Amino acid sequence: MQIYWAKVNKIIDETPEVKTFLIDRPEDFTWVEGSHTHFALEGFNAGDKPNRNLIRHMSISTLPHENTIGITTRIREQCSEFKRILKKLEVGSKVALFKTHSNVPLRREDKNVYLLSSGVGLATFRPLVLDYFNRADNVNLIHSLNIDSTKDFLFPTVFKSAPDKNFTALFVDNRKDYYEEVKNLASDKAALFYIVGSDEFLVENMKVLRDQRIKPEQIMLDKRENQRHELLSSVYVGEDSFLVDPK
């Protein structure tokens, strides 16, 4: 396993609770849209065993052509040891990156794509939208729907409706409006649905989609295949189609 150590070159306060850490890109570090990485703080591998309290799976919120690795995360006042250290991180600090992988690349199948997210989940979708803006081949349109009760919506310059690019973005601050909109989107029976958020959020969205007769293979989750299978099977009980790998 290769561990990349790199310096933080900029810290952006996206909202009062959300920060983006921009990290120098090592020369041979590569990734694709929708990727996540193991993001570790100094000292995580100082002992005989890795200190898992200093490691988190984080989505990469940038694309390679931006030549910086973006990690966007929410840091609340009451937070874990990892987040407390992260909050105090300064420009010039070193962090480790390893085991980078994408579970949610943009599927180019001449279909409409709906991005369903909660709060900072938009960090996973930012690269998909930028990749679509750069090359719209075989994607009919993209619509982003995000719920955030703080009302401090992320990346407003990216997630801004652009009719000329067949891209629309909608932000809501309450569950009722959000799930009503998910129902409306599910009237598009041939579309692809990407969902990012907590497991509870994933399951609630999948239940709405299932009730609207959206098939499991139309759903993309930011999970490893075994985790995806487990979540889908808990919602689509008795259906075999979730066994199909959509990629």
From TrEMBL:
One of its GO terms (molecular function) is oxidoreductase activity. It comes from the Bacteria. Coiled coil: none annotated. Residues 1-107 form the FAD-binding FR-type domain. This is FAD-binding FR-type domain-containing protein. It comes from Pullulanibacillus pueri. PROSITE patterns: FAD_FR (PS51384). InterPro entries: FAD-bd_FR_type (IPR017927), FNR_nucleotide-bd (IPR039261), Riboflavin_synthase-like_b-brl (IPR017938).
